[in-house]
Structure formats: C-alpha cells, structure tokens
Amino acid sequence: MELDALTLARAQFGANISFHILFPSINIALAWVLLFFKLRYLRTGKQAWMDAYGFWVKIFALSFALGVVSGVTMSFQFGTNWPGYMQTVGNIAGPLLAYEILTAFFLEAGFLGIMLFGRPRVSERVHTFATLLVAFGNSLSAFWIIALNSWMQTPAGFVMKDGRAHVSDWLQVIFNPSMPYRLTHMLLASGLTVAFLLAGLSAYRQLKGDRSAGNGAALKTGVRLAALLIPLQILVGDAHGLNTMEHQPAKLAAIEGVWHTERGAPLLLFALPNADTQRNDYAVGIPYLASMIIKHDPDGEIRGLNEFAQHPPVAKVFWSFRVMVGVGVLMLLTAWFGAWQLRRDRPAARLDRRLLCWLVGMTFAGWVATLAGWYVTEIGRQPWLVTGVLTTAQAAGQATTSMVAGSLLTYLALYAGLLLAYVSVLFHLAKKAAGQADAAVVLQEVQA
Amino acid sequence: MNAAYWLPVIFAGLMGLAMLVYVVLDGFDLGVGLLLPLADDAGKDRMVASIGPFWDANETWLVLGAGLLLVAFPMAHGVVFGALYIPVLLMLVGLILRGVAFDFRVKARDPHRPWWNAIFALGSLLASLAQGVMLGRYLTGFAEGVLPWLFALLVGAGLSAAYALLGACWLIMKTDGPLQARAIGWARHSVAGAALAVLLVSGVTPLVNPAIAAKWFALPQLFLLLPLPLGTVALFALQLIILPRLARRQAVGNDRYCWLPFAATVGIVLLAFWGLAYSVFPQVVIGRMDIWQAASDPEALWIILWGALLVLPCIIAYTAFAYRVFWGKADSLSYQ
C-alpha cells in the first residue's frame, strides 16, 4: 500500500480518535459509578463506600486528564486534516460540535475541581451535586458526539444546495435513524468497560492481600454491573445490526462477509475475505445462522457486496466485528460466572484465586471491544465520510505527506508512552491501596 | 445592516472573548508550570495544588476558541491551523505532556516523581513557546523568511515571560510563607520580560504589517487609542512600585493587597489583547481573508448563537462559583 497523504491523514485521525475514545469510554460510566458510591455512602453511612469513592475518583481524575488533552488535539485536527468536511456539512457539524463544547464539555470540566478536591470546602450536598453534574456532562457530551457521528452514518433532515448541506429539520438531524441505537450501544459499552475495570483492578488488589470492605464493594459492583449490562448490550447490538441492514446494507454485507447476495447465509466464524477473488478463503461457518440472526428466517436473503458500486474494505470490518463479538461472549461468561459466585451476598473475599486472576486479565476487555466496535462502524462507512454526501477523499486537506508523517509518528510515540504510563500507574495505585489496607488490618489486629 | 453582516462580527467577538479568557486562565497555570523547577519539593506540591481544581476547565476555553474558529469561520480554521501545523503540533504535545504529568506526578511511584515534575515544566514551556510562536506567525500573516520567524520566536519568549508573570502573581495571591516570598521575587524578574514582550509586539507589528500601522498612526484614531499604551505603561509602573513594597511587608507577615499584582497583570493582558484585536479586526487571516469571507452560513451561526447566549452566562456563573469554592490560600489537595 502506498502511503499517500490521504492514507496518512486517515491514520493520524484514526490514531488520535482511537486514543481519545479510550478515556471517555471509562469516564462516562465511571462518573455514574462514583455517584452510586457516594449515594450508597450517604444512605448507609458505611465508610467502605466512601473508601471506594476515594480510590476510584483518583482513576477518574487521571482518565479525565487524558480525555481532555486528547480531546483538545481533536479540535485542532478537524480543520487541518479534513477541510472539505466543514465546507460541505459545516451547517450541521458546526452547531452540534459547538453545543457539545458549550453544554457538556464546560459543565464536566467546571464541576470537576469541586468533585475531586472540594469535599472539605463545600457541603456534602453540593459535593454530591457536583458529582452528578460531572456525570451528566459526560453523558451529554456523548449524546452530541454520537448524534453527529450517527448523522454521518445515516444522514437525515437536510437538503443539498450548491454543494452544501442545509438543515431542514434539526430533530431529524439529531435523532437520525441510527442515533438511538448507536448512543445506547456506546453508553452500555462504557458501562461494561468500567464494570470490567472495576472488577479487574479490585481483583488485583485482592490478590495483593487487600481484604478491605471498600475494595470488596467495588469488586461486587463491577461483577454485578457487568452481569446486568452484557445481556442488554447483546440485545441492543442485535437491534443496531438490524438498523445497519436497513440503512447501511453494504456495511452489513462486509460484517458478514457476504460477497454475493445469497439466501440462507451461514454465520462465518472464521474466514479470510479475499478482495481479489471476491470470495472468502478457508471459511468455517454455521449454516443458515446469519440469515436467521439478521432476517429472523433461516432462508432470508442477505444482499451481497456485489450489489453496491462502492463498499468498505471487507477484511478489516469482518475481523473487527468478530473481535468485538468474541470479547462480548467472554464478557458474558465471565460476568455471569462471577455473579453466580457472588450470589446471595457471598463475600468477595472468598472468590477463587483463579477467577481473580481471570478478572485481572479481563481488566481492559471493554477497551478492546469498544475499539473493535468503532472500527466496524467507522471503516464500515468507507469510502464515505458522510454516507451518500461526501467521500473521505473529497474532504482531505493539502498538508504535505512528510509533515503528516512526522506528526503521526510524534503522536504514536506519545500515545504509546502515555498508555503504558496510564496502565502501570493504575496497577501501581491498586498495589499501593492494597498495601495501605493490609497495614490498616494489621494495625487493628495489633491494637486488639 | 443584516444578519450576514452582524453575525460574523458577534462570533469574532465571542471567539476573541474565549481566547482572552483562555490566555488569562491557562496563562496563570502554564506560568506556574514554568516556575515549578525553581521551587523546593514542598513548594512544588503547593504550587500544583494551587492550580489543581482549575486547569481542566481552563483548557476548555482553548477548545471553545479553536472550536468557534472551526464552526463559525471554517475557511479560516483550515488556513490558520494548516499554516501553523508544526507550532500547533508542538503546543498540543506540550499541553498533553503537562496535563498528564500533573495527574501522574501525585500517583506515580516516588522515584518517578522528579521525572513527572520535569515533564510538567517542560510541557508548560513547550506549550507557552508554541502559543507565542503561533501568535507571532499569525501577526505577520504567515510570512516566510528569517525575520518573520525570528519575530515569531521572540513573541514565543515574550509570551512565556508574560505567563510566568501571571503564574508568579497567582502564587503571590494563593500562597503564603516562604513560597509567597519566592513568588514575589519571580514576579519581579518576569515583569521586565513581560514588559519587553509587550513593547516588542507593539513596536514590531506595525513595522512588519503596514496595514496595521495605518490603522494606528492616523488622526484622530491615535488619540482615541492612546489610553491603551498609556494604561499598559501605568500598570507596569504599578507593578514596579507594589512588588518591592509587598516583599517588605510580606517579610513581616502582612500580605494585604496580595491580589493586586495579579489584577494588574490581568489588566495588562486585557489592554494588550484589545490592542491586538483592534489591529487585526475585521481580518481573520491577515492580508487574505476577512471575517465575512470566512464565516459559516447565517443559519448555522444563528443556532450556535442562541445556544451560546443561553449557556455562556451559566458557564461564567459556575466557573465563578468554582473559583469561589477554592477562594483564599491554597491548601494541600486530597481526593476526599
């Protein structure tokens, strides 16, 4: 593949947005979990909930900082990498982005200081309210961004005049056909990411000897939240897939690896989609199952890629989808098994060592599934930037290849370093907290 | 006088306001970052604690400024940030490094802490220098050549000095004891640098850009504009008078009027900003594009304007509330 300016610009934007999404996908749900901890503390008066809050708010602060700085980067790259984007659809993207900054971004950042450091200086009520506003701001931010992204996938509520999109109905723009599905799917993805992060880091603390009630509460919250959300996510994912079939059939054909329209299509578990021969090599599948899932009829017809003049690259979409679903299945098994182990308020401290190790391994499972899911939907939209309106190539800028290559390498090096630092600091914090909890227990025993 | 005329003017004003608020707010916390290596370990913790509750929100104003340029003047966003590709990249790297170092330094292993402190200071320096270079490049209309680049680098150094002054004055206001005494010293040193910077930008900008010179040096504007340079000189003079007095009084435990240097510096920033805005308006890319050529369609601007009018007062109110909650001297931060 030749590295032209378009490929580089896409790689750079993809790298930036992939790095960025890691942190909102934690923050959106973690803010609500923190509010839950705070409310449990206020309701029960048990210090354990406040201990859990105290530990997890540090992780929230760190993730928030990474989300802010990578978000600042994004706001500069829209114009430099994709000037054609604002020129064509600025009347829609502009207001949505502006509303995101004005109503959501400021709200979360404005109350973050009080949430993180304000407890000694404000009343309990104001502190809880600040936590609520930060959580609300985070989710509102997701609402606007997903509205814009969904509009790019399934545009509605506009007319084209002189090569520019003009809004005819804002409600249709915001609540476009794929928006409710994508928003729910993303919010649940954030919930699952946080559930496994909670479970994984708390399991790590427990392995390091932490038997504190606060850590047990966080571990239980994580496992139960995961067990609750994963079936919902599977249902919503299925509905999202049906929505994709209706509005973006080419993407669906790529997901299922259907090169030629067929009835009774198998669900492919493994295949190497081959763009040259327009076939799948080494395909292993379950007969009729794809038609069954998508059409709810074993003999249902799935439109193949041959029916579309332009379609996305098949292998990337096909495999990203399988990674997402594969991780989802692992999540289901893990969460339900864990929840069963914790049934009827069995203490987290009695969990089996092997299960704890497995949970540690699954700590960042949510990240893998979320990224894979975004690759499905974003690569699946190609070659369009805005479906049927603007192609990615048309929107690309004039930046020279060497400059983009240089900045891409800079970002990649920076992001690799930061990701390493983030993950190691998370485990370091967990280890330190475990050490302190252990010391506190020993102290109590000595005093007794 | 129709909407197509007024809307771009209003948005130029809003964008200017966002940039101004950004320069004041992130200016002081970037300045604190610049000064960090000069303090001892306890001082470093206190300095970081003084900006801890604010920096996230401060940086949001940059997103608003850049965002308004993107959504209200999309043609200019591509041209400006395309021409500033490398300084913007460096600024972002600086902002990323300092933002994460800020959080990592308190959470990382103790032996790693000096590294994160250094990254925090270096990131702040990189971001300050890059922002100054961006301003310098912008003011020359992105002219190529050795002299325009030299000018841009000097503006970079000058803006860093101004940020250091803001940061030092912030610390005078927010701390006490030995750190406050040192901050007064830092402020006295950076006043000279900041004054030089203002002088340089005001002197050289008309030289490199005849159109700007024509806007200033003609009658009767000249007389109407005189309060700007005179006010700036007066505020610098005020700094030179109060800082030594504050140092003497602080030594005997009296820091009344400790807010005055910060207020005076904010005043200087306001006047300098007003001067720059007058020089540039109504251009958005100097010598190439005015705000009306660059503006989005009125239909999009109306929608954004209604949102902004509704939401900006709330933002200002809760920002003020957050500053009031953390009013007074900064104490050590704890997540509880």
UniProtKB/TrEMBL annotation, chain A:
GO molecular function (one): oxidoreductase activity, acting on diphenols and related substances as donors, oxygen as acceptor
One GO BP: aerobic electron transport chain
Keyword Acetylation: no
Primary residence: membrane
Residues making up the signal peptide according to the UniProt record: none
Intracellular or extracellular location(s): Cell inner membrane; Cell membrane
GO terms for cellular component: cytochrome complex; plasma membrane
Membrane topology of the entry: Multi-pass membrane protein
Membrane-spanning residues: 20-41, 53-76, 96-117, 129-152, 183-204, 216-236, 319-343, 355-376, 408-429
InterPro entries: Cyt-d_ubiquinol_oxidase_su_1
Keywords, alphabetical: Cell membrane, Electron transport, Heme, Iron, Membrane, Metal-binding, Transmembrane, Transmembrane helix, Transport
DNA damage keyword on record: no
The organism's place on the tree of life at top rank: Bacteria
A Pfam family this chain is assigned to: Cyt_bd_oxida_I
Family: Belongs to the cytochrome ubiquinol oxidase subunit 1 family.
Name of the featured protein: Cytochrome ubiquinol oxidase subunit I
Automatic annotation (TrEMBL), chain B:
Annotated keywords: Cell membrane, Membrane, Transmembrane, Transmembrane helix
Main location: membrane
Lineage: superkingdom: Bacteria
GO BP: aerobic electron transport chain
Membrane topology label: Multi-pass membrane protein
Residue spans crossing the bilayer: 6-39, 83-102, 114-134, 146-173, 194-218, 224-247, 259-281, 301-326
Record has Cell membrane as a keyword: yes
PANTHER family attached to this UniProt entry: BLR3729 PROTEIN, CYTOCHROME BD2 SUBUNIT II
Name recorded for this polypeptide: Cytochrome d ubiquinol oxidase subunit II
